[in-house]
Write a structure and sequence with these properties.
Strand content: 5-15%
CATH topology of the domain at 59-204 and 254-354: Rossmann fold
Shape: globular
Radius of gyration: 30 Å
CATH architecture of the domain at 59-204 and 254-354: 3-Layer(aba) Sandwich
């Protein structure tokens, strides 16, 4: 009886099995809850990052805005937009946008900008063109301060039968950005000649880091997650300035040092030749050089690259010095007369390449 009275009634299920089953369900629920929380936090952070990146797309894009504000021509950034590979590019399909401002101590500058579907400075079409001349450069080639039909690229188009000018220059560009532009352009036919003129921006120090360093950082994180996640992009942007610079060098490091500049120019020549085109390297003058016989380091480097690569070199500086009339709208950009002079000096060189 004692033994019988101490027994518990049999249950339909095993207590041990029920305990284990409940534990398994609880673990699954906890895992699911943790996953939901993680996804929710990520989604919230991703949304916040997208709002943040809509204002601040990249270090270089932000730095460009700061430079233009400091120079007095912030409106110039309104014709540009961020670009993943080149940091920024000219906005496509602009319809006669008027810009006003000044650069440094210049007089007020006012001009209009129109671009085609590729973001190139618009000019009259040449429907029967059989040859193209591509212009790579910065704001001097783009034509800051003059109308589209007054740029030397547009003037040259009118001097050659059945040849079209493609003005792919962009304000603020260095030779690095010009090289990437050339490598990423899609041509309906390869250009017969490529005119290259970079110098001023290449020599400017911005944040103590070069364009190539910024580009390498972007390439290092160029994966699916970075391309599709604004949160990861924001974390990359906030990760810090990268490798430490030597004391006192932060404000002296140009966007391209002389060796980088020479390398980028050389790569432009090589890639243009792979397309079947020949390059003309053109050294652009600075207004202060009109009063002396000095040349800049970048101008010297360009002449050496031209000699090493065996390409034509057009040195504008001595020709500008001979002019009595003003040739500039500010410290670096040519006025209408200056653009006309550039076209005069380039014409025989381009004509020779087109006749080959």
């Amino acid at each position: 009886m004692g033994e019988a009275s101490g027994r518990m009634p049999r249950s339909n299920g095993s207590p041990t099995a029920a305990s284990e089953g409940g534990g398994a369900i609880s673990l699954r629920r906890k895992s699911l809850f943790a996953f939901v929380v993680l996804v929710s936090v990520w989604a919230f952070a991703e949304g916040a990052a997208r709002l943040w990146l809509a204002v601040d797309e990249s270090d270089r894009w932000t730095a460009l805005g700061d430079v233009l504000v400091a120079a007095g021509f912030e409106q110039l950034q309104t014709i540009l937009e961020p670009d993943e590979q080149r940091f920024w590019r000219a906005r496509p399909d602009l319809d006669t946008q008027r810009l006003t401002g000044s650069l440094g101590n210049s007089r007020p500058i006012a001009f209009t900008v129109s671009t085609n579907e590729l973001g190139h400075r618009a000019m009259s079409r040449v429907p029967d063109a059989t040859q193209d001349v591509l212009f790579l450069g910065d704001s001097c080639t783009f034509g800051v301060g003059v109308e589209g039909d007054e740029t030397f690229a547009a003037l040259l188009q009118g001097r050659f039968a059945r040849a079209r000018s493609i003005n792919a220059a962009v304000p603020g560009y260095t030779a690095y950005q010009g090289r990437v532009t050339l490598e990423t352009l899609h041509f309906d036919r390869p250009p017969s000649a490529v005119v290259v003129s970079f110098m001023f921006n290449d020599d400017l120090p911005w944040d103590g880091r070069s364009d190539l360093e910024h580009a390498r950082d972007r390439a290092r994180f160029d994966n699916w997650l970075l391309r599709h996640s604004s949160l990861v992009q924001m974390l990359v942007a906030l990760r810090g300035p990268g490798a430490a610079l030597e004391p006192g060098t932060a404000h002296r490091r140009p966007r391209l040092n002389d060796a980088e500049y020479a390398s980028e120019l050389g790569q432009i020549v090589d890639h243009a030749r792979s397309l079947g085109a020949e390059v003309i390297l053109m050294a652009w003058p600075i207004a202060r050089q009109m009063a002396n016989d000095r040349v800049t380091r970048k101008q010297i480097v360009m002449s050496r690259v031209a000699k090493a690569k065996g390409v034509p070199f057009v040195d504008l500086i001595p020709h500008f010095r001979k002019q009595e009339a003003p040739m500039f709208v500010d410290a670096v950009h040519a006025n209408v007369a200056g653009n006309r002079l550039v076209a005069d000096l380039l014409e025989p060189e381009i004509r020779g390449l087109l006749s080959r």
